[in-house]
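Sample entry as discussed:
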Amino acid sequence: MDINEFTELLGYNDSPSYLSKSEFSRYPGYSHIFRKAEKKCSLRGVYILGGNDNDAVIPVVYVCEAATEEDAATLHKQVWNQNVVPFLLISTPKTFRLYPGFKYDSKSEESDTRAILKISKTTNQVLEKLSEFRADAIDIGRVWKKWGREVSVEARVDRRLLSNLKKLGEQLIKNDLPRHLAHALIGKYVYLHYLRDRNILSDRKFEQWEIEPRSVFGRDATPKGFFKVAEKLDEWLNGALFPIPARGKNAPCLRHIRMVASTFAGDHPISGQMHLDFKAYNFEYIPTETLSVVYQQFLHDEGREKGQGAYYTPVHLVNFILDELDAKLPLQKGRSVFDPACGSGAFLVQCYRLIIERELTQNPENRLRPSELRDLLVRHIYGLDVDEDACGITELSLILTLLDYVDPPDLEKACYKKFQLPVLRNQNIFHCEKGFFAPNSAFEENKPGKGFDWIVGNPPWKKLSRNGDEASDKAALDWMENYQKRFPVSDNQLAEAFAWGVTEYISKQGLIGLLMPAATLFKTKGKTFRKCFFSQTNMWCVANFANLRHLLFEGAASPAAAFFYSFASDRDETYHRIISYAPFAVNQSVRHDTNTRKRTKLWTIAVDASEIREVLRKDVISGSSLYWKLAMWGSFRDRHLLRSIGKSFPTLSDFKDKHGLFIHPGLELRNKKDAKDPVEYIPELIGNSEIDMRVLRNHRRIFSFPDESLKKVEPERAYVRKRGGMKPIKICSPPHIIIDAARRFAVFSEEFIVVPPRQLGISGKPSKANLLKALTLYLNSDFAYYQQFLTSTFWGVERDRPDKNDLEKLPIPIDLLSEKELKNWARLHDKIVRQEKKVRESNTNLSAQRKEEDKLNLLLSELNKAVYDLLRLNEAERWLIEDLLFVRMKLNEGRIPREAVRSAKVSEIETYAEILKTELDNFLDNEIRDQHKVSAYYSDQIAMIRIEHPEIPPAGPVSVSKITDSEIEKEFSRLRRNLSHSQGQWMYFERNLKYYEGRTTYFFKPIQRLSWLKSQALLDADEFIAEKLN
């Protein structure tokens, strides 16, 4: 079986998602990588995700051909170094082999042990063993279910290289080389190997410069050879990168240089024994963007990361931002790019490549002269940074990118003799110690007069202070003060200043794409910024990555968001709606099978249409964060519910004023000996109870405190901060409510209890005891939890701690209760407290405890029904609350809970279909209730809803069938084939796909429980009706 028969058997040849060699140039973001793989790795084709409507694609499978069985192992190593594709299929003379593209075991000499599958070249073997790699199986996501465990981000070449460089750095430091020089020496050797492996630093260059290669590389390296080649390269490439002193007390000696050189050659840096870690790397294949990973190491280890607010932007996130800009204004010759905080140049390198690739497609010979490449660089690419090393890395990365397109790359060709590589420093790449807000004259003189067409980047995220000693911070603070009325910034957040500042440098048609803190959309102090920013900019898209914060960035504590906008003096009415995209980890199908539910790092981002919302500009210019919160977690139904309840009832702030209640955060007891601030002795605290919150760590919705959570205040702890005053003491006096900071519980008590710090207390007069009990029930209700989650500033975004302001905005319906009803609520509270104690007392008998828990649950259901009835919520509104609390909220922090991803039960599919049918029938005609026939068909992985609108009702009842009948299977397959050419990969990009065929509509959905919630049925019905109306 030859390779063409092999791809035919896998269904690749007829798939629009399979790129043959003639199509490698179709996607500029990857074409240079595919060409390299074609030339060096015998690449025959690439199976991709996406690519139907734009240039954003995700390579999934390489199909390569090896001349021998041994060559397959070499190809695997080369593809692993490319760092772009998770799976590799290789055809050898005897076998077909499957390799993991992101894993490579350098210690294994046998190629067979590196392959995760090896099969004979027969039809049966291919169909049986590689069934998950068929085109239809990849399109529907089945490949990740079995093979997703092989996609290891930690084993990728950039992670392995960074880890090894760190270990090498530690050895150099232990051998008496200062940290900054150790990193400089390592950095220098990384680039020497880039140049050597790419034949830029060729044998001809060594001959010309009269340097022996062995004096630079390997265990025989010498300081003389190292410093001479460094000097020659600085002259040739027009810039000194990682300057290292050749002489002096701290200069690296022979021992240090040989330690690094021999380690890169494969020796172990300690014992001198051969070690294969570094032999695994081939810098000819490693993308230039890996330079950014190396720079990240310097930032982190030398403390610059924290001080300058910088961190490494993953390449797939860089591509995401560039793809969005490119879809709106394609980057091509004549359009310039600027990164105002360019770091190591990841954004600029990708932009430069994009321009080159576009030009190559216009060139009949599919190549550009060195002078043309130079012109594309110097006329289009600009960057600025406060860090001189960062500027140097950016410059060298851009030069390396230029040389990637030159043959030979060392420029040793007669027609290249007069060619000079460009000098980029302070012509294109500007080092400015005072940063972007005090650019030097060179920047002002050399920037394009018409402004930049693209401004991109990841500006520093820092809250600036006048106490800092960095010149760039002082310049930025001066700028903020000078422009505070026109360009307001909250909390001296530097990223916000950048978002404003770059608008001064944009061209008339120019676009901006910046990676910002997601908190910009939500924080309370950012209201003025949001109000002005969204009023003065033409914002068209915001991508909120809060749910992916632990999966996108290495060690990032703060979530990110990408802002896409332009700045125009005239309001463009096309921007009255803003696209909001908030991806959730559970929908990142390429991550791997969600049933494993592990929080592994992402290697790419897939945009799912079901996570896209529209936010009205007229709403966000109010400065409110609610609209962004609902775009992430809610829907227009949630918005309507919250608005309706908010208008109908007073807030807790107004309610407490009316009834003479007092709300305040708790107080922190201190030991006088350990106190750093002035303290005050409060003798009345002694002997009273305080709460040990550690005991309550795993408790949820309690109405009384377990005995073990209360302890007496000892005399030595009866101190509080003077600055705190006596106000917090008031909330400790009964009758009062103690509210958990995370809203897990609210407990009414008639005893003096010290409210802990960060928790909240509400106290009132003794006559208000029943009112406080009723309020306690309400605060423990599902609705209160739902309202607090959706309206609090950071809950579900960055930290799960709503604050006092969030609580005081909670609508309170308690005043609707009559005196009799208030007493009934108080009695219900007391019954729940008594029943809760029975549950605790029965903990020694499991059977008895379950019976008592069932009784408690009935009382809690009675509580929620009472609240729902008081708020006058209908059944559909209750579904919204229950689905958010018991399923959707569990997706917080990028989690993948079993309840969300398990297969839906038949009863759940049937309930979904009944709700869908009811909503559609009710919309058309209240008199004729049976106008839609809804049928559900499901398999182990996907399901299909068929909605028929017969001309003559009744349509008949809902039906649910498993796909076992041959006729149903045939119909299902027919529809799947029709989808394959337009929306065949719906599982990745549109997990709620609709397909229209005459008077019949089909919904395609994953079988995951998340897709079959009652609230989802409501939303699907709403969307179906809206599309029909349009």
